Amino acid sequence: MSKPAEHDLTGLKCPLPVLHARRLLRAITPPATAVFLVDDPKAPADFASFCEITGWQLVSDEASTGTARRLTLRLTE
Question: Domain residues of the chain, as ranges?
């Protein structure tokens, strides 16, 4: 299995990271994994809410470089 692409959404402020992610995720068919690099402190909560209503799962929220976070989402169905 290949490593999922990492989408850099740093520099974007709420709600733009999750809106950009939603646009990118529309083109993905399950099963799929997507990784997003964000630096807005509100982004992890926004992504968690997004996942609750779309069927995606937030499977990982890890510290990255500086203030950035690496969020990994998965869609199984």
Answer: 13-75
Q: Which amino acid, 27?
A: A
51 is catalytic: no
pTM score, two decimals? 0.92
The larger pLDDT score, comparing residue 65 to residue 23, is at 23
- Which H or E run includes 22? helix 16-25
User: Quick one: pLDDT at residue 8?
Assistant: 97
CATH topology of domain 13-75: Translation Initiation Factor IF3 (3.30.110)
Q: Which is the catalytic residue, given 12, 14, 68, 75?
A: 14
CB of 44 closer than 8 Å to CB of 38: yes
